[in-house]
Design brief:
Elements: H1 2-33, E1 36-37, E2 41-45, E3 49-54, E4 61-72, E5 75-84, E6 88-101, E7 106-118, E8 129-136, E9 143-155, E10 161-167, E11 171-173
Parallel strand pairs: 1-10
Antiparallel strand pairs: 2-3, 3-4, 4-5, 5-8, 6-7, 6-9, 9-10, 9-11
């Protein structure tokens, strides 16, 4: 009987350590992997701009907007914003720049730009929206690029959170 208890406790300790290890390494990947595609997104495309606006109709996130703009001379601007229904504890936005590979006939991620906003950093305001933008210079010209984004919001009063993703159409960088 004593041996069974020792074996059971040992197995329990091993199982708990495995769970803690998985949780510790899940961090950013779990945020990105838990995202749902925004189904009712509207896309806008012009010669030097591609934009997508989605309303996921979530409990926390009201809308997500992403865009990529060709600024000329091999430079693009990535932009994203997240609008929430009510004040949040945390809002995250990961912007990605993808490049079309005609050799692979597929998109390749070339840059990732993570943004995080915390309610504690804005004590005199409600964290209901956030936006991020970044310019990316020195891109290969004459190539198609697109923006993708993963937006997440964590509720102020509970452990509830939701994460959505979207992507723009491509633009030809000049």
């Amino acid at each position: 009987m004593m041996i069974k208890r020792i074996i059971f406790k040992g197995l329990l300790v091993v199982a708990m350590m495995s769970v803690f290890q998985l949780t510790a390494f899940a961090g950013e990947d779990s945020f990105e992997m838990s995202s749902k595609k925004i189904e009712n997104a509207q896309t806008f495309v012009s010669e030097n701009l591609a934009r997508v606006v989605g309303s996921p109709r979530g409990m926390l996130i009201s809308s997500v907007e992403l865009s990529i703009t060709d600024l000329g001379a091999g430079t693009v601007e990535l932009y994203g914003n997240v609008l929430c229904h009510e004040p949040m504890e945390k809002i995250k936005l990961n912007l990605f720049l993808d490049k079309w590979s005609s050799a692979e006939n597929d998109w390749n991620q070339i840059e990732k730009f993570p943004f995080t906003w915390l309610a504690e950093d804005y004590p005199n305001e409600d964290l209901t929206m956030a936006f991020g933008a970044v310019e990316v210079p020195n891109l290969e010209r004459g190539i198609e690029y697109r923006a993708r984004g993963i937006a997440g919001a964590w509720d102020l009063d509970s452990n509830l959170y939701e994460v959505f993703n979207a992507g723009t159409s491509s633009i030809l960088v000049e």
